[in-house]
Amino acid sequence: MKKLALIITTLVLSLASLQSQASLINLSTDQASYNSGDTVLLDISVANINPAAAELGFNINFDSVALTFNTFDFSMDVLSSAFFPMADLSFFDDSIIEVFVLWFDNNDLPATSFSLGQVSFTATEAFNGSFEVSDTYLADATGGDVDITPVAVSAPATGLLITFTCLLLGLMKKRTNIRK
What we know:
Elements: H1 2-16, E1 20-22, E2 25-29, E3 39-46, E4 55-61, E5 67-74, H2 76-81, E6 84-89, E7 96-102, E8 114-123, E9 132-139, E10 151-153, H3 158-179
């Protein structure tokens, strides 16, 4: 039984040392939940965009029963650098906001990480603040596809986890030897 616990602990610590991935588009609300009539503010940021990108597009999916779309305000960084920023409700689905930003070329990107803007909604009923990004794409200045390269985010220090595992193994072996 003790060996099983040791194996499980080692497995869990090994998996915890793996790298996690950051997403390109990050969404955050000003509150965790809302009541009917509240203004819901959704901040949108771009993290670690591929430097070759000159075009960005994605959809924001939301609950159109619980929310009414008001405005999409691009940040000053985007307005001052982008040739064509556009965001509006999808013509085909009123629970999707289509976002598109075009720069003349990749040198016009504000940075590799920047605030894209803020969306304002009105809650028509109680809402828990959940949104989803879908259909994300990047292109270069000629319209060619650009990889959305996920960026490794540092997870718990691997060395620390390995040291802890070794210490745990040593203690378990010492306890086993003492009892014999």
